[in-house]
Amino acid sequence: MKKDDISTEEKIINASIELFSEKGFDSTKTSEIAKNAGVAEGTIFRYFKTKKDILMSIVTKAIQFFSEKFIVLPLNKVLHSEKPEEEILADLLKDRYEMISKNFSIIKVIGTEALTKEKIREKLVEHVAIKTLEIGEEFYQNGIEKGIFRDLPPRTVVRSLFGSIMMLIAEQQFFPDDKKSKDVDKEISTIVEIFMNGIKSRKEQ
C-alpha cells in the first residue's frame, strides 16, 4: 500500500472514531464520515466494503494498541521493577489513567458498540479484560507470597483497584469542572494508600 493510501485510510478511521464517539455507530452515515475525512464517499469503499468494516478495523487496531500499552508494558513494570509495591501500583495507575484519558474517544466508541455487538464484546473480553485480570491477580498473588498483601481473593482485590481508577477517569471525563477532583496525582496516591492500608482508623481504642 502506498504512503498516500495509508494516509487516506487513517483519515477515514480518525473521522469515523470522532463521529462514532459523538453520534454512535448506527446514527453515523458514510457520507458524514467522508465529509469529516475530507474525501469523496466513494473513496471510503475503496478501503472498507461497509461501515461495519470500518468499525471492526477500529476495534482491531485499538485492541492491538491497548493489549500492548495496557497489558504487556504494565506487566513488565510489575514483574521486573525493584521498586516498592506502593510505587509500582502508583506507576501502573498513572499509566492507565494517562493512556485511557488520551484515547477516550475510541474507548467510548468500542465500549458503546460492545454493548450490542457480540464479536466486539468477545474481543474485548479475550484480549483486554481477561489479560488485565490475570496480570493483576498474578501481581497480588506474588505479594501474598512475599507477605506484603493480605490473603484475600486476588480477583476481588483487582476489580476493586481497577474500579477505583475507572471511576476517577469517568469523573474527569463527565463531571462538571467544579465537581472534578483538581489533583489527579493526589487522587491516585490516595487510591494506593487505601489499597495498601485500608480505611479503618489505626487509633488506639
Produce a short descriptive summary.
The protein has 205 residues and is mainly α. Helices cover 77% and strands 0% of the residues. The protein has 9 helices and no strands.
Structure description:
There is one protein chain. This protein is mostly helical and 205 residues long. The chain is 77% helix and 0% strand. It is built from 9 helices and no strands. Helix 1 (3-23) packs across helix 2 and helix 8 runs antiparallel to helix 9 (184-197). It starts with a helix and ends in an 8-residue tail after the last helix.
Enumerate how many helices there are, as a single number. 9
The low-confidence runs, each spanning 5 or more residues with pLDDT under 50, are none
Order of helices and strands: HHHHHHHHH
Q: What gross morphology would you assign?
A: elongated
Biggest sheet descriptor: none
Content-based structural category: mainly alpha
- SS elements, strand count: 0
Q: In percent terms, what proportion of residues is strand? A: under 5%
Give the end-to-end Cα distance, rounded to a whole number of Å: 72 Å
Mean pLDDT: 84
List keywords for this structure.
205 residues, mainly alpha, 77% helix, 0% strand, elongated
Task: Give the arrangement of secondary structure elements.
Layout (H helix, E strand, L loop, with lengths): L2 H21 L6 H8 L3 H7 L3 H30 L4 H18 L1 H11 L3 H28 L8 H21 L9 H14 L8
